[in-house]
User: What shape does this take?
Amino acid sequence: MISVMPNQISLYEDMSKLSSLMVEAARSHDWDRLVSLEDSVTTLRRSLEPQDDNSQFTAEEISRKRMLIQKILQDDAEVRRHTEPWMEHLRQFLGQNNIRKKVARAYGAGL
Assistant: This one.
């Protein structure tokens, strides 16, 4: 079996490292950094998609890939745990702002 570890597995390892940094950014509410890291992960994922085939993986490589994917998913859940409350707050704020605008249009700009 041909080893594909240097290519695919290294991409998963890079994604895992970035996902750890995303957790740190989310915990510190560094939204700009989080978005930048997310863009980097997306770029890696897109480069991985055309070649993401397990047929040439050894059992060790499949195990390593599974472990990395599980860690990435755990990091993603942790990021969401920090971002979802902020997003909900933002939705409420924007919703209230839209209501204010509608009231102002309906009753005049004097409000």
